[in-house]
């Protein structure tokens, strides 16, 4: 390690963690599905427009892509997606983002076969969607969560009624695998469904359901029913017998039901506060750990535990904001943990390494070799700090870290307070190069697990009910104050940054507090009323619990919405937005930018064509970060190493 001959102002440090490094060769690895002697996983690729491809590893071929060039494996069920594919017995089943139709590829030969269409073309573009796919033991049917979008007068889709209003219909469906386009609805009647899971012998199906205004981490129910095959004039079709309620209801969230190899139905329940493992018919958990096993299913396809070849449960856990898995003590975050009667497979990442895929004790997809000095990737400090109402909140604190630069001895670094999305999400305990982009340039970063975050139990998650825009904001404010009082950071250069729900926290902090001297909002919520009236089905009643019932509690919505409290804004802000965002539409960002510009507050706005909720394209990721760095340089009076990018800032003095 070398040290610079002279101190360099914080924020202006030269760094090898460039925007090019963030995207060049970068992939997001998720949803590992193992076989007995092969392993499959999904790779999202920023340099290919953010498309997701499916990879397969065998000992003879190594890792090869099995989806055709240009395929983008993504489902838009709940808009957030997940669970867009499944692989079993050498067959790949997947949804392509272009039309949301189900497909299959026979991968039994040396080369993957042709793509076969399985679901019919819907009347409405992308109107028939599928997620969380599983295949029956005889390979004749796929069972999946379905979501139907339509227009008044449209033809029925998947044998269900057409959608005659703005809200899609969710159900559980069966789709034939022979290309006949045959399908049937197995379960309907609830607002939402998840995790359809077939028993090992194929005779039982289990699933989770919930209704408005609940989210899947609030109050859900676990059901099961006998699987039947019926003869019809058109042939055979899959159906279910009478359904039995297994667990769940008011005050309990059930996630990830799984059948053990001996046919017993297991599930994660938070009835004892933490998501621990239960089995049907027992009142007490069969596996408890120090922390949460489960995680809110924002996306389909999550797997936090499995049964290994001996039938033993293998489970990851969250404890004090960090993930642990006994099978892999050198890692700090795990995406999918699965075994399908063969070797164990999972993704693993750490504070210093991106995600790898591990199968049967070996690494079959290695992380990138970033070529960075370990000094750039020092682990964070896990902190708890006092906040409002005599409560304690938590965070990951990353001090400035650079192998070749130090700051002036009489200067403290600027602080970026990160407000994660969700808001029922959490700060991820893994290498995130965008966080290191800032710390390597001389910024301190604190990633806040404010009240309402996951990984700390149901009671901590519920502390945000009725308090969104209050408790989360207070915790971000108090995290900054805690680090100021400790002497870690500069009180005059406090930045708050967040996207989506975190963007709302940013805007609320700037509207109702004077702690921060700059802010960055990515596709953030400015008007809660507009969000309640104009968002997708999955979250359309989310605010009932976080804020109040709409429109009965309109006064609360108005009081909490930053757009109605412009007199409280004084800090400069940069706002970033995708123009195809269906979750937080662009009008939310445009409203706040227009209002700040009219009030004479320094503001920069970038809207990216073709981007949705969360930036996926390499060029967008790079442009957004460089603009944000340039913004802070202009506001705080430093010149970023390599020079600042051009950026229009309205009302900059």
Main attributes of the structure:
alpha+beta; 653 residues; Rossmann fold; 8-stranded mixed sheet
What's the topology here?
Elements: H1 19-23, E1 28-34, E2 38-45, E3 51-58, E4 62-65, E5 85-88, E6 91-95, E7 102-106, E8 115-117, E9 128-135, E10 141-148, E11 169-176, E12 183-187, E13 192-198, E14 204-210, E15 221-232, E16 235-240, E17 244-248, E18 254-259, E19 265-272, E20 274-279, E21 305-307, E22 313-315, E23 317-319, E24 322-324, E25 333-338, E26 345-349, E27 356-359, E28 362-365, E29 381-387, E30 391-398, E31 415-419, H2 433-439, E32 444-449, H3 458-462, H4 471-485, E33 494-499, H5 501-512, E34 518-522, H6 528-533, H7 542-546, H8 554-560, E35 573-578, H9 586-598, E36 603-608, H10 618-636
Parallel strand pairs: 31-32, 31-33, 33-34, 34-35, 35-36
Antiparallel strand pairs: 1-2, 2-3, 3-4, 5-6, 6-7, 7-8, 9-10, 10-11, 11-12, 13-14, 14-15, 15-16, 15-17, 18-19, 19-20, 21-22, 23-24, 25-26, 26-27, 27-28, 29-30, 30-32
Helix pairs in contact: 4-5
